[in-house]
TrEMBL record:
It holds the Pfam family CBM_1. Residues 240-276 are annotated as: Disordered. Keywords: Carbohydrate metabolism, Polysaccharide degradation, Signal. Residues 277-313 form the CBM1 domain. Coiled coil: none annotated. InterPro entries: CBD (IPR000254), CBD_sf (IPR035971), Cip1-like_core (IPR048955). It comes from the Eukaryota. One of its GO terms (cellular component) is extracellular region. This is Carbohydrate-binding module family 1 protein. GO terms for biological process: polysaccharide catabolic process. Residues 243-275 have a biased composition (Low complexity). SUPFAM superfamilies: Cellulose-binding domain. One of its GO terms (molecular function) is cellulose binding.
């Protein structure tokens, strides 16, 4: 049986960094009043420290050592978030790859879901995903097709991670300025791997943003965060992390394009490459029924992961 998803394309303007509500590159240290620790209910083993041995820019970053189990969780962050559209950009570095277990590395208290409920960003089945605590829905669905629509988080290197939460319930997500199709949902968006997510009418309304680690099994990890920006407009990977800095504005726009996908029960087939089509680093470039770009932009090559997914690395 064949399943086809519709072509989706949306352009999002990236506006000047000056519109940021709050940002920090931690070069002046870690102000724990402005960026407090957040560990609801319990904290047994997790810790947050200022680290001067590694950084995306300058010399400082924030290091989070997360322990296994729910009470090993610990975060830091800010409740200075816009009342409307929310954009969050951080550079992050993970010491270990995401596994099959459910974990969170960013969490947002979300009153729209109820008291003490969160909108979470993390991983499961080795890919990036969202989790809505109130009904445990995931974006994308954790089917083989849903897993293939997201990406893995690289380890040992600084990655630019950005997301958007809209007042209409829209969610968009970028890794190194490349849109992630499976982590995109909203009015007018066709995402065949968002069935569980869209069954609810809840529109997220984050009241704060926290960065760290939470594990619902035994997984532990160390994450570093730097050049964080919380804004009401798109920042992009070129925007700085210091409210006092004067940085060059990011490119004028970015475009999200997801390709028509056909799924069959036969063996994986090589898809036809669109003319002039080159997939960016970390993008999908092959897999069962995949019909998008199968050529990677230089200097990356298409690496096989499983029958459902190959990635530009």
């Amino acid at each position: 049986m064949f399943r086809k998803t519709a072509l989706l394309a949306s352009a999002v303007a990236i506006l000047p960094f000056s519109s940021a509500l709050v940002s920090n590159d931690f070069e002046s240290g870690w102000d724990q009043t402005a960026w407090p620790i957040y560990a609801p209910d319990c904290n047994q083993g997790g810790k947050v420290t200022l680290d001067s041995t590694t950084a995306h820019s300058g010399k400082n970053s924030i290091r989070v050592d997360g322990a296994g189990g729910y009470c090993g969780h610990v975060f830091f962050g800010t409740d200075k978030v816009p009342s409307g559209d929310l954009y969050v950009r951080t550079y992050l570095k993970a010491s270990k790859a995401l596994t099959a277990s459910h974990v969170t590395f960013m969490t947002m208290p979300d009153p729209a879901q109820g008291t003490k409920k969160h909108l979470r960003i993390g991983g499961q089945n080795s890919i990036l995903m969202y989790n809505r605590e109130s009904d445990d829905a995931t974006l994308p669905d954790l089917s083989p097709q849903g897993v293939a629509a997201s990406v893995a988080l690289p380890t040992g290197s600084w990655e630019c991670f950005e997301y958007y939460i809209g007042t209409d319930g829209s969610i968009e997500t970028w890794l190194n300025d490349a849109a992630i199709a499976g982590l995109t949902v909203g009015p007018g968006v066709s995402n065949p791997n968002a069935g569980g997510w869209t069954r609810s009418s809840i529109i997220p309304k984050p009241s704060a943003v926290y960065f760290g680690w939470e594990s619902y099994g035994g997984d532990s990890n160390t994450f570093w965060y730097d050049d964080i920006v919380v804004s009401s407009t798109r920042v992009g990977c070129s925007g700085g992390g210091n409210t006092n800095s004067t940085t060059t504005a990011p490119p004028s726009s970015t475009t999200l394009v997801t390709s028509t996908t056909t799924t069959t029960n036969t063996a994986p087939a090589t898809s036809t490459t669109s003319s002039g089509c080159n997939a960016a680093q970390w993008s999908q470039c092959g897999g069962l029924g995949f019909t998008g770009c199968t050529t990677c932009a230089a200097p990356y090559t298409c690496k096989y992961s499983n029958d459902y997914y190959s990635q530009c690395l």
